[in-house]
């Protein structure tokens, strides 16, 4: 008796499937094309019509939904926009840095880390914030204390955060690079710009491989928009944060080819 599927759709490769097919050995290799097709038919007839996948919700990763915004950046206030030659120079320097990291990754990653360097687990978002920013910034202590701590001869990296040393970032695979980048950008959405943040964002962008994954595409656009938002609120062209904010917008727009976010010089 024909199945419902066979009633609706004729076989593209009709093969005799008589009583001899019942004796067909599915475990043995087919001896000729006809026997192969008969094996396929017999296997298909033994499959259930409906199959339900058994999925463990605990194994599903967080943040699977990707919201890629196409909104542009806040336009730079008059006098705040960098020149095109400055942007091109920064992109050239950034490209050189990326090539150097790629070329020497094996060398740096093989170097032994200091005893005080304990890199967080890939899923430990709070641990990465504390690792990159240090307790001073992570806990929201005043910036004056952060600057004073950085001036001390013997730095306590647990207080001021670990800089993105090459021995550290060279050990990060692409999954970790993207996870840490998303974590820091998420923190940046709710906090002001800080030097520790800028150093890590630059280093992670330098390690981010092209072509971009959809998650990375959305993340760096979010970063550029946040930088442009803060830049538009600055009161002076001489503000100390302006060069760093311009640089991050430039790299996202010019190097990673998000041209709709690019600053257009006057």
UniProtKB/TrEMBL annotation:
It comes from the Eukaryota. Its main location: cytoplasm. GO terms for biological process: spliceosomal complex assembly; spliceosomal snRNP assembly. Keywords: Cytoplasm, mRNA processing, mRNA splicing, Nucleus. GO terms for cellular component: Gemini of Cajal bodies; SMN complex; spliceosomal complex. It is found in: Cytoplasm; Nucleus, Gem. The SMN complex catalyzes the assembly of small nuclear ribonucleoproteins (snRNPs), the building blocks of the spliceosome, and thereby plays an important role in the splicing of cellular pre-mRNAs. Part of the core SMN complex. Belongs to the gemin-2 family. This is Gem-associated protein 2. It comes from Dissostichus eleginoides.
């Amino acid at each position: 008796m024909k199945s419902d599927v066979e009633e609706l759709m004729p076989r593209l490769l009709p093969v005799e499937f008589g009583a001899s097919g019942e004796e067909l050995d599915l475990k043995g290799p087919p001896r000729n094309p006809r026997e192969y097709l008969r094996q396929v038919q017999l296997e298909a007839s033994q499959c259930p019509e409906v199959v339900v996948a058994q999925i463990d919700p605990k194994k599903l990763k967080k943040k699977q939904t990707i919201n890629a915004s196409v909104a542009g950046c806040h336009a730079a206030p008059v006098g705040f926009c960098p020149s095109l030659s400055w942007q091109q120079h920064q992109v050239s320097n950034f490209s050189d840095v990326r090539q150097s990291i790629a070329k020497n990754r094996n060398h740096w990653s093989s170097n032994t880390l200091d005893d005080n360097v304990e890199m967080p687990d890939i899923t430990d978002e709070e641990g990465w914030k504390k690792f990159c920013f240090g307790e001073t910034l992570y806990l929201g202590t005043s910036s004056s204390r952060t600057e004073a701590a950085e001036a001390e001869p013997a730095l306590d990296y647990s207080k001021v955060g670990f800089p993105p040393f090459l021995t550290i970032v060279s050990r990060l695979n692409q999954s970790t690079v993207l996870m840490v980048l998303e974590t820091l950008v998420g923190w940046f959405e709710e906090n002001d710009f800080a030097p520790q943040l800028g150093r890590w964002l630059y280093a992670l962008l330098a390690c981010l491989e092209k072509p971009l994954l959809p998650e990375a595409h959305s993340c760096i656009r979010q970063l550029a928009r946040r930088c442009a938002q803060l830049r538009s609120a600055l009161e002076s062209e001489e503000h100390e944060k302006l060069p760093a904010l311009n640089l991050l917008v430039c790299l996202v727009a010019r190097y990673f080819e998000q041209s709709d976010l690019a600053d257009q010089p006057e």
